[in-house]
Amino acid sequence: MSAPRYSADALGAYARQLLDAAGVSADHAEAVAQTLVEGDLLGHDTHGLAQLAGYLGELEAGRMTKTGEPLVLSERPAALLWDGRRLPGPSLVLRGIDALIPRARDYGTATLVIRHSHHIACLAAYLLRATEAGFVLLLSCSDPSGQSVAPFGGTRAVFTPNPIAIGVPTSNTPFLIDISASVTTNAMTGRLHKAGEQFPQPWMLDAQGHATREPGVLFADPAGTILPLGGMEAGHKGFGLAVLIEALTSGLAGHGRADPPAGWGATVFMTLYDPEAFGGMPAFNRQMDWLADACRSNPPRPDVERVRMPGDGGMARRADQLAHGVRLHPGIRPALEVWSGRFGVPFPAALDAGEARG
Q: Are residues 147 and 284 in the same domain?
């Protein structure tokens, strides 16, 4: 039997109702619901609605701010620093993109750094907001309160997975790049550990520094770590990327791992680039379209059907799920139905075959 599908609109409305019941103001609730559903639409199912139960727990514990605005700590024409006051991360990031768009049009590029954000969910979920307006977006984050990734050659965790995403407009399907400086994420590690499964490759280190497929080492005492991107052989590359992201987030924010931990959250960096301020959008599209054609038409190796650009799979999955309904990971509904019962908000019904989707 195939997995049930759910209307994206119904899932968004359900998330908004739960957040409203938890006391989140309407503007923040809308941003969170939109972003989490977008994550599932693109296929990032560890960072879509899978995050909502955790957010509701953070709200209940008073560790996520429910209402209000970020504080502006520094403001120049093309550079901003906000204190996010632990407001919902999706709301802060979407507001940030909207704040940067007019500045990037005026100055060619504009940057915002946010400290004391809460968790920002799936980075890829924000990229279309920029690319559809004709901008390149570079977005990254770190979590100063968490450590799960050791520096290359070490065994003690210093970093979080430190994701980085880049959205690139083209005249057709945009490039949507969403990677992390580690070979896997905390969320995927936790999911596999809970399910009693292992990684397909040795992506973890135990506390003694031995590579292993066992996700449970991250939760052992003493704890193991996640390997940097590149693993045992080329992990210096992921280590270097993690250091870069720390400089862009914690360094520019003036708040990070050198400060006492203050709860689950994120330090966020984002820059918008307007191609019109450089070589112009037609020239930009010509270069990106040529690159896309050269890659997509590249002869595939024997075990590959075809070469895809970053984002091709996500955009195809998004179109399919908007048309036919969203498939959720089996662990998402049970975790959220606990909150459904508490707040009296029923989980959406699955779509019937042939039912109109929205």
A: yes
Q: How far apart are CA 337 and CA 342, in angstroms?
A: 9
Q: From 68, 122, 136, select the one nearest 288 (Cα to Cα).
A: 136
CATH number at residue 107: 3.30.1370.60
Residues 275 and 332 in one domain: no
Number of domains in the chain: 2
In single-letter form, the type of residue at position 285 comes to N
Q: How far apart are CA 218 and CA 343, in angstroms?
A: 33
User: Which pLDDT tens digit goes with each residue over 121-165?
Assistant: 999 999 999 999 999 999 999 999 899 999 999 999 999 999 999
> Tens digit of pLDDT for each residue in 91-123?
999 999 999 999 999 999 999 999 999 999 999
User: 111 forms bridges with which residues in the sheet?
Assistant: 79, 271
Whether 62 and 86 share a structural domain: no
Domain that holds residue 4: 1-68+315-358
Structure tokens at 288: 């990106």
Query: Judging by beta carbons within 10 Å of its beta carbon (0-12, 13-18, 19+), is residue 294 exposed, middle or buried?
Result: exposed
CA-wise closest residue to 180 among 334, 46, 291 = 46
Q: At which residue do the structure tokens 């403001």 appear?
A: 75
* 132 CA to centre of own chain: 18
Among 247, 263, 296, the domain-final residue is 296
pLDDT in tens, 253-298: 999 999 987 776 799 999 999 999 999 999 999 999 999 999 999 9
